[in-house]
Amino acid sequence: MQGTTIFTTMSALAQEHNAINLGQGFPDFPMSPVLMEAVNQAMRSGFNQYAPMAGWLPLREVLAEKIDYLYGQSVHPDTEITITPGGTYAIYTAFTSILRPGDEVLVLEPAYDSYVPNILASHAKPVLISLNQPYFSIPWEEIQAAVNERTRAIIINTPHNPSGTIWSAADMQKLQQLVVSNELYVISDEVYEHLVYDGETHQSVLRYPDLFQRSFACFSFGKTFHCTGWKIGYCVAPKELMQGFRKIHQYNCFSVHTPSQVGIAEYLKDRSSYLELASFLQEKRDYFIELMRLTRFNLLPSKGSYFCCAGYEAISELPDLDFALHLTREHGVATIPVSAFYQDAQPSPYIRFCFAKKKETLEAAVEKLRKV
Fold it and tell me: E-assigned strands of the chain?
């Protein structure tokens, strides 16, 4: 198992040095006052006791409507949606419900740091496959070659953390063929589903009926609505898989914060609550890219998420962790080294920036980065 996460380490260092934190993926701008009022109203109206184990039914119903509207997939709110305390919890519970000792899970690196510990907790084996650099494309031949009789599942993440890349429709079709022909399961980390830019379309497993039948799709309200501290999300899976998921969930968490569920259910009735998110965050991404043209960093394309990776070859030959520490201590800007998203922690030529910040924060950070 791993120790303290890089996110905890870098955020603590940023606080120690009074640095601007472009490392950890949380916004520094306020969430919607409409959503806050909806949750406050829920509390005032008495929705303060346990919600059902699967989640507040009106919330599951509005999510089913959203899924049908966005992805053309009919899901049953009673049996195929479960509200969870965050997306990370949903991913862990999905793994726990299907993995057996000795199973193997394909993990594409760089990868969010919870995946491998989740797999190990079930006494299964992560099989690590590196995405192709510099643009983090998917190595389909390597993935196919890694499948054997012990392979149980594959975890995917789109939009991708840390790179900001997105999966294409062609990628999803290849995944569907791989999964169906080898009878694999998919854990699909889609917490940034609404943060897809430049007119591109989010390729959810929910768009592909044959793929969905073998998938757990995991989502986050915290990422969607800029309230990461709420730790609330949900999982969508076909009935047979959800039954196993709920067996774990009912004895681990059982019930999620009721007022938040009631408030979000009301808020989601207005489709603009999620349809306008991409343009809102793309404006921040574009502003950050424009500001960074004044620096010596080499930004990679970002098609989704909160994040943009950058090379620093014109500035330093330090390993990325050492360079990230140097930036924080000496220049007052905290980032995340991309090597932290690999299990072997080999130095990477990239660091990750979070651009989900106020304009003033981005301006102040880049002013410091111009001097690097």
Answer: 20-21, 81-84, 104-109, 125-130, 151-157, 185-189, 215-220, 233-236, 298-299, 307-311, 333-334, 336-337, 350-354
